[in-house]
Amino acid sequence: MILPLRAVLLQVLLTAIAVAIETPILFRGLPLNRRQSMKQAALGNIAVAVVGWLFFFAVQAGLPAGLQEQLISYVFFDRLFLGNNWDPSQVQILLILFCFIAFLANFFLKFYLYQILEEIHQAQRDREPFPKLTKFPRHPSLIRQEELQVTRKNIKENQGKFILYAHATSNSVVLLLLLLRQSQM
Predict the structure, then answer these.
(1) Contact (Cβ atoms closer than 8 angstroms) between residue 109 and residue 51
(2) How many helices and strands in the chain, by DSSP H and E?
(3) What angle do CA 122, 127, 117 make, to 5 degrees?
(4) Beta-carbon contacts of residue 47 (< 8 Å; ≥ 6 apart)
(5) Which residue range(s) make up the domain with 163?
């Protein structure tokens, strides 16, 4: 098996950029401290990258010869070799459709990963004798319990929105960087 080293290195760089973009968004929108936000962003992006590469290696072997050739030429050489059988508009439509599906799949993977991690953290907090409150004022006794429950409910309802916002922002920046890279080639 040949490993596309240049593509993997580019993936590592873009993953680091995505983590740097998503971390402050998750920190502002979710009940996480800075360190937890960075861990969440890093874990989500690494999971997406690993699943993406596993999907690539699993699917490319089962593709028709012409499509497999196009996919491998794009990953290894950053170019589509359009022969007589390929219309550029068809290839562009396929790429756009694939990117949209990948964006949604990556978002759902990150969202469910956050849900799983939140359940693990909640189980750990339940075992602690005095649970720590995050992102709330220093003196929780000054806040009525009902207000605290409303705040937790609002955070729970907005989790998907903030994860989507972080994911869309990082993907937009990564897409812009890839377009700039492609225009300089």
Answers:
(1) yes
(2) 5, 0
(3) 25
(4) 109, 110, 113
(5) 5-184
CB atoms within 10 A of CB 135: 13
Residue 26: count other Cβ atoms within 10 Å of its Cβ: 25
Q: State residue 80 phi and psi, 5-degree precision.
A: -95, 125
pLDDT in tens, 130-182: 555 555 554 445 455 455 454 556 666 788 899 999 999 999 999 999 888 87
User: Which burial class, exposed, middle or buried, applies to 179 when counting CB atoms under 10 A from its CB (0-12, 13-18, 19+)?
Assistant: exposed
Burial of 23 (0-12, 13-18, 19+ CB in 10 A): buried
pTM greater than 0.85 (yes/no):
no
The total number of structural domains in the chain stands at 1
Tokens of 81: 């070799």
What residues contact residue 10 under an 8 Å CB cut-off, 6+ apart?
none
Instruction: Tell me the C-alpha to C-alpha distance, in Å, between residue 56 and each of 29, 59, 81, 84.
Output: 32, 5, 19, 25
Distance (Å, whole) CA 83 – CA 62:
20
